[in-house]
Task: structure prediction
Amino acid sequence: MLNDPLATALTKITNAERVGKKEVLIQPVSSVIKSVLGLMHNAHYIGAIEEVTLNANPALKVSLIGNINRCNVIKPRFPTKCNNFTKWEKRYLPARDFGIIIVSTPKGMVTHTTAKGAGVGGRLIAFCY
Result:
């Protein structure tokens, strides 16, 4: 039994990226994992995401393009306000304007730059650079 499927998915992606694989299969699939991978795809950290069926179970086939240095979940899921993102950027990202922090807000899953622009806070979910 998996305790945190999102952490498992991001670890699989990081390990496959380090080895030099071109694609990785993510299973189990949830809406949170799809949202996080969609944001990573929009930020050009991963390639195409394709839904496949593996032994009658849904899975995601993720194309890797070699842009990930590190990605991981943020535990515990810290709550933050819209004016406190700088503190979290210093903690989880190596430099300013380098990488993304994925935040769960009342407006859905967004990156920290989008949340700053919209003036909303939320809970920190993951980071990627």
About this structure: The chain has a mean pLDDT of 95. The first strand starts at residue 23 and ends at 26. The chain has four helices and eight strands. The chain has two domains: 5-64, 74-128.
